[in-house]
Specification:
11 strands
Length: 138
Amino acid sequence: MDALTITAGPFTFGARFETALAPKTCAMFRSLLPYAGQIVHVRWSGEGVWIPLGDTDFGVGYENHTSHPAPGQIILYPGGISETEILLAYGGVQFSSKMGQLAGNHFITITEGIDNLAELGKRTLWQGAQPIRFALAG
């Protein structure tokens, strides 16, 4: 039930929801599945890609939040100081915006295909926006 398949650019990743640590964020995102969007390279945070979501309010606060997601961790910034966004770390990240350091809810972890994350990040940086799709596995 917590297993996901994420397709980003030409890559497919296995992943899992972090339901025990971020139950509200996971439940909210699960209700949106399948979810499709585009990732662009981060501007201030380091080695990550993100889905800008403007002023979208998902109705979740902070839970299991971090400013330093590890490669393969996906966080949701619920909005406030900066715009709402989903960020996927592929390398070193200190989650930030033009307003300064932020924290987002770590709610998904990539478990398979992590060796392709750096290539996804480089592709997004040098070739531009890439499609991304989240779906329940199976």
